[in-house]
Specification:
The chain has 16 helices and 19 strands. It is α+β, with helices and mostly antiparallel strands. It has one domain: tRNA-splicing ligase RtcB (Alpha-Beta Complex), CATH 3.90.1860. The strands form 4 sheets. Strands 7, 8, 9, 11, 15, 16, 18 and 19 form an 8-stranded mixed sheet that branches. Strands 1-2-3-4-5-13-12 form a 7-stranded mixed sheet, sandwiched between helices. It has a two-stranded antiparallel ribbon with strand order 6-10. Strand 12 and strand 13 form a beta hairpin. Helix 4 packs across helix 11 and helix 8 runs antiparallel to helix 10. It is globular and about 60 Å long.
Length: 475
């Protein structure tokens, strides 16, 4: 990317002033090295977002930003409820994709002695891969109840514990969901997919805490060096993808009728106050509930697998947070509290200390921010900061971010070679697709440590702990 077009406010804050059709500036949080390696398309897409009606303050991009559909992945944008828009492209196709991390009370050495057996048991218990289906088949009535209730619905059906809900974003249920706004085709695609990982970059990983950066916050979160945790990364599966596909088409047609001159057709959107905008919000919130329920069921299956191999493990929930959403939130803008609709596409909510949405035990430390890496490198746990609330509406990066396309990755690497190489390093991979493993090759991603270091240095979130994988179940 050409850095000459930016004003550099600090070592990790780059500003492209509003010009042409832009209503607000673009702000990218990244190191110089990440900026130089970033696709120029990120700035182009973020500038297009900055031209949308009702956008507030700036169009933001996180350190892991890369080209996406309409909005850049790693993009954050907030809109005024009266003048602004909601964009299906600003949420993405995998609605409410997110990460859920479980504590285990186990140590690395406890896993190593049963590592292969645990990997095989998790792989047998956790449906993964393209078109994977679970044992649960939802009736029409149960589908409505799930879309309305989210993780609450799942817990009520015996999947997990009531205590899980307090440590789940939105306390397990996204308010305002409208099952009636979800098409029959979306329901059909989801009917057999509850409790499944899916494919692509989705995974379940058994990880050990390799390094602690902030011992006080780590203690608040219940983790220490050498501890073992389990992270689950997935979203709303076929239902969310179908909702995104349908509403993008409808919004593209309706935008012109609403007087919205789109700088890019992929930025298809609708006024928040319009019937289409309200209908999309209802369907999207239902998809959020689908993702929350899905991760709740996967938690139940994971606990059952652990009980088979390590009966002493209990696996309480640390936290569950999404990174593909549009949420109605209150933020301070120019000294005034305002109700806004915050799009985060490939960006994790990262609320700072004292926020009313956080469980009481995290109010002092700030929200756990769960950052997924690649299966050969590592992941991170961060904590939300007050400065992040000011600088990007309480948002941070969501992962390493792709450095190359899946096609290029499969051209360069063979899945079997990757599985063998990781095994030689003590990381056991189980996957139904060697091609999928090649697509997700560790070197196909940016350096997650560089991304997290930039988020920390920019004041978006504070580094708490680095996690390294021991077992990876890959879709």
């Amino acid at each position: 990317m050409d850095l000459s077009v930016f004003e550099r406010r600090s070592d990790h804050e780059w500003v492209s002033p509003a010009r042409g059709r832009m209503r607000v500036p673009v702000v990218i949080y990244a190191s110089r090295e990440l900026m130089q390696a970033m696709d120029a398309k990120v700035l182009e897409q973020a500038a297009n977002v900055a031209a949308l009606p009702g956008i507030v303050q700036a169009s933001y991009a996180m350190p892991d930003a890369h080209w996406g559909y309409g909005f850049p992945i790693g993009g954050v944008a907030a809109f005024d409820p009266d003048e602004g828009v909601v964009s299906a492209g600003g949420v993405g196709f995998d609605i409410s994709c997110g990460v859920r991390t479980l504590l285990t009370g186990l140590r690395r050495e406890d896993i190593v002695r049963v590592q292969a057996r645990l990997a095989d048991t998790l792989y047998a218990r956790i449906p993964a891969g393209v078109g994977s289906t679970g044992e649960l088949r939802l009736s029409a009535a149960e589908m409505d109840a799930m879309l309305k209730g989210g993780a609450h619905w799942a817990v009520g059906r015996g999947y997990g514990d009531e205590a899980d809900l307090a440590r789940t974003e939105e306390r397990g249920t996204m308010r305002g969901a409208d099952p009636k706004a979800v098409s029959e085709q979306a329901r059909k695609r989801q009917r057999d997919e509850m409790g499944t990982l899916g494919s692509g970059n989705h995974y379940l990983e058994v990880q050990h805490v390799a390094e602690v950066f902030d011992a006080r916050i780590a203690a608040d979160y219940g983790i220490a060096a050498g501890d073992v945790v389990v992270s689950i990364h997935c979203g709303s599966r076929g239902l969310g993808h179908q909702i995104g596909t349908e509403f993008l088409k409808e919004m593209a047609i309706a935008a012109r009728a609403a007087g919205i001159d789109l700088p890019d057709r992929e930025l298809a959107c609708a006024p928040l106050a319009s019937a289409l905008g309200r209908r999309y919000l209802g369907a999207m919130r239902a998809a959020i509930n689908c993702a929350l329920a899905n991760r709740q069921i996967l938690t139940h299956l994971t606990r059952a697998a652990f009980r088979e191999v390590l009966p002493e493990a209990r696996l309480p929930l640390l936290y569950d947070v999404s990174h593909n959403t549009c949420k109605e939130e209150t933020h301070e803008v120019a000294g005034r509290r305002r109700r806004l609709f915050v799009h985060r596409k490939g960006a994790t909510r990262a609320f700072g200390p004292g926020h009313a949405e956080l469980p009481p035990e995290f109010r002092e430390a700030g929200q756990p921010v769960l950052i997924g890496g690649s299966m050969g490198t590592g992941s991170y746990i961060l904590a939300g900061l007050a400065t992040g609330m000011e600088r990007a509406f309480g948002s941070a990066c969501h992962g390493a971010g792709r450095a190359m396309s899946r096609h290029e990755a499969t051209r360069r690497w063979q899945g079997r070679a990757i599985v063998d190489e990781l095994a030689s390093r003590g990381i056991l991979v189980r996957s139904p697709s060697l091609r999928g493993v090649a697509e997700e090759a560790p070197l196909a991603y940016k350096d997650v440590s560089a991304v997290v270091d930039a988020a920390d240095a920019a004041g978006l979130a504070r580094k708490v702990a680095r996690l390294e994988p021991l077992v990876c179940v890959k879709g």
